[in-house]
Amino acid sequence: MRSDSDDDVVISPPTPLNLQIAADALLRGELVCMPTETVYGIAADATNPEAVRQIFAAKDRPADNPLIVHISDFVQLEDVVSEWTDAADVLANRFWPGPLTLVLKKSEMIPNEVTGGLETVAVRMPDHPVALELIELAGIPLAAPSANRFMHLSPTRAEHVDPRIAERVAMVLDGGPCRIGLESTVVDVSVDPPRILRPGGISRGQIQAALGRPLGQLPPSDVRRSPGMYLRHYAPKAPLEFVEALEPDAVGLGFGTPRNDRQIRMPDDPNAYAAGLYAALHRLDAGNPAVIYVEHPPEEPEWEAVHDRLRKAAEPSKD
After folding, report:
1. Is the separation of the CB atoms in 31 and 169 below 8 Å?
2. Where in 132-175 does DSSP place strands (E)?
3. Each residue of 131-161: b (16+ CB within 10 Å) or e?
4. pLDDT digit string (tens) for 75-107?
């Protein structure tokens, strides 16, 4: 646990006692920050409209931006979805627990506050022992978007949880660095053929291989059926710009040997790059640079999720 200054986040180890305290807080309608394999989330009882509204207030998140509901076992699906499709069955049995979110018709137990007023709900089973134990102890599905302010960088370490969010929660549970490091892939399986709404920790190729057929195309629409569909998202405070190569005095992410202490050499493997991306951007952003420069990652399909996050982070702010 740490509280060295006003900007520090008080972090609690996931002991059995702390997990029970956190579960009890959730049942009282309070918020808890929990780790997952993707990013740290700010969790609330997904069946409690008032608790869910607290998430939106803490994050300054628009009410039309749906949340992902997290479950610990397949039995809890009965509380979350009203229709289960063949594609959902294939993908859930192949990739759960894991960084895959499925969009399906919602049950009556899930309030409109969770879904942004839509008739569909996004649901996943996280692959992290702390998250799974917390959900199981609480005995309820948890709505849990990333524990950051809206459009800002997601936390992949407990200390990266936004201090203003940490002030609003009963506890921040420390589960160590997130293994995946990017938000989950979101697949709409309420339509046929299924389609990706947001790329993430499970690749397009993996999903198509599991289904044995191509995915559908995402039609242009103003309806946000999933989190992460805004043009600007996952952004540091500093503007982000793409370059072919970092200049010697630049602040940024590259693939070569760093030429100053504000350059970070990133892995040339897409999964390793993804796992370290947000932590690297947090580190550079803490120095208040004028600009963070990023060398273009490879264009291969395996880099789709990384490109998606960097492109959204580089989108100019409309503030």
Report:
1. yes
2. 142-143, 171-172
3. bbbbbebbebbbbbbbbbeebbbbbbbbbbb
4. 999 999 999 999 999 999 999 999 999 999 999
User: Which of these, 138, 174, 132, lies nearest to 21 by C-alpha position?
Assistant: 138
In this structure, are residues 121 and 112 in contact, taking their beta carbons and an 8 Å threshold? Answer: no
CATH architecture of the domain with range 16-211:
Alpha-Beta Complex (3.90)
User: Distance between alpha carbon 264 and the CA centroid of its chain, in Å?
Assistant: 23
Torsion sign across C-alpha atoms 99, 102, 108, 114: positive
Residue 294, phi then psi, degrees to nearest 5: -130, 125
Domain with CATH 3.90.870.10 in the chain: 16-211
Span 46-63, pLDDT tens digits: 999 999 999 999 999 888
**To which residue do tokens 């602040």 refer?**
251
